[in-house]
Amino acid sequence: MKIAFSKSEQLKNLIDDLFDYTRLMNDKNTFVRQQICLNELLDQLMEELVPLAEQKQRLFIKHFPEHRIFAALDSEKIVRVFDNLLINAINYTTGDGKILVSLEEQDDQVRICVANESDAFTAEELNSLFERFYKKDQSRTNVTEGSGLGLAIAKSIVELHGGTIHAKYKNETLYFVISLPFTT
């Protein structure tokens, strides 16, 4: 019974993620934009994830400016992006367990970076990270680790906000970098 229940929960989560992805791709006009303080939003998300991070011996380190940074965003959707990146960092960090979260202004955009020590990524793997159903090592990945849709959904949300998201790997660290316009 436990196995059947667990599998049905995994299937439900996969269907929910697939539904969300499909809805985002087909219903692009449902964004409710408002001025969001990114400092406070990221602080709140990290605070909510501290218990999970501590359970896995992870530590958030933030680099935010003293002043508050605002952008016109759909808060519900952008939370999904940051939540996905932070939870992925918690689950896949190697080394000392530090997860760096930075926020800065660059010209007419705001830049958010989530970085953590990670196993190596090839250029091909980095290019595939945002594809639907992609998982780095299919042979060792368990279904319970996710649907492979989280980063595809994150990319769709960021692009619908007029921004960009990319990943880079340097010095044993995986960086997810998001650039968003202040207003759209």
Model description:
Helix content is 42%, strand content 26%. By secondary structure, it is of the alpha+beta class. It has a single domain, classed as 2-Layer Sandwich (Heat Shock Protein 90), CATH 3.30.565. It has a five-stranded mixed β-sheet. A two-stranded antiparallel ribbon has the order 1-3. Helix 1 packs parallel to helix 5. The longest helix has 25 residues. The protein is globular.
Provide a quick synopsis of the model:
With 184 residues, this protein is α+β, with helices and mostly antiparallel strands. The chain contains 5 helices and 7 strands, in the order H-E-H-E-E-H-E-E-H-H-E-E.
What is the topological layout?
Blueprint: H1 2-26, E1 34-37, H2 38-55, E2 59-63, E3 70-73, H3 75-92, E4 98-106, E5 109-117, H4 123-128, H5 150-160, E6 164-170, E7 173-181
Parallel strand pairs: 2-4
Antiparallel strand pairs: 1-3, 4-5, 5-7, 6-7
Helix pairs in contact: 1-5, 2-3, 3-5
